[in-house]
Amino acid sequence: MHFLSGASTCFVWIPILVVVATQMLLIGTVSSLNMTNAYLNHKCLPKQGKYKPGSWHERQLEKIIESIASGDGFTHGYDMMSLSTDSEYVGVTNQCRGDSLGSKCRSCFATAIAGLRRRCPRYKGAIIWYDQCTLEISTFDTQGKIEKDNEVCLSNAKKMKVDSFIEKWMTFLEKLVGLAIEDKYLYAASDTRFGTKKLYGMMQCRNDLYNNTCGKCVGHLAVKFQDCWNGKQGARVLGSSCNFRFELYPFVSSTKSGPNMKI
Question: How many CB atoms lie within 10 A of CB 81?
């Protein structure tokens, strides 16, 4: 899942090697700070059924997608729209990472819509995760709710030898949650000493979760996927309502909530 690349240099043909070395440095920096918008995972939700071409459901879904795409929700990184009748409901929720607003959010939304169309064609319910956003379509209202079914953990195969790993990470995560609930995007990113290494962490809750609900969501993910992330050099735990990530290298463009958190 996580790869680092390096390059060796010598002092022959300096003009060419300076250019190459500079390019490699820039590539490494962009990669480590996660400026790309890589696909992470998706789930098609067959229990919610499929819609037929030209159906009411398809028409309303397209209206919502067009409305979100032309709206101003990308400036604050969150949009949720729905249309319904007595018997049917169509909802779309787009949540962008707290440091990926504006044009990045708009671009991620377009990418995610295309990704869902390709991976879950005509499914009424589906979710897809990218580095910079999470997109969900659903046949029921998900606002303010912790969804416990649509979740996944991706972890580094390499392990990190740190005494009391779980206790230290959970303490760090709890402090990140405390910072996030004070942030209007429910987002926090920071770093801390973890044994002899520096650990970088990030978490975010969907903008319709608040205070205790946000903390409960992150705590649920941490407990459910403990066997996946415990002792690893890096991991992402992705839910539709919240997510968190940690690595041994910086992966967001800034630590908005302040660096060097002590645990």
Answer: 17
| Structure tokens belonging to residue 157 | 């195969």
Name every residue whose Cβ is closer than 8 Å to that of residue 75 and which is 6 or more positions away in sequence: 101, 102, 105
CA-based end-to-end distance of the chain: 27
Instruction: Pull the structure tokens for residue 192.
Output: 């801390």
Please, what's the largest Cα pairwise distance for the chain? 74
- 180: which 2 tokens? 């996030």
Cβ neighbours of residue 182 closer than 8 Å, sequence gap 6 or more: none
Average of per-residue pLDDT across 175-193: 94
With a cut of 50, say whether residue 260 has pLDDT above it.
no
Residue 161 sits in the same domain as residue 243: yes
Q: Encoding tokens for residue 139? A: 């046949």
Q: Are 98 and 76 in contact (CB under 8 A)?
A: no
Q: Do 123 and 165 belong together in one domain?
A: no
Query: The domain spanning residue 242 has which CATH number?
Result: 3.30.430.20
C-alpha 248/C-alpha 199 separation (Å) is 5
User: pLDDT tens digits, residue range 147-165?
Assistant: 898 999 999 999 988 889 9
Question: Phi, psi (5° rounding) for residue 216?
Answer: -65, -40
Provide the domain limits for residue 184.
151-247
Q: Nearest to residue 136, comparing CAs of 17, 38, 42, 7? A: 42
CB burial of 159-197 (b: ≥16 within 10 Å; e: otherwise) equals ebeeeebeebbbebbebbbebbbeeebbbbbbbbebeee
Model confidence, pTM = 0.83
Sign of the torsion angle spanned by Cα atoms 113, 114, 117, 119: negative
Residue 210 lies in a domain: yes
* Closest C-alpha to 239, from 166, 176, 149, 169: 149
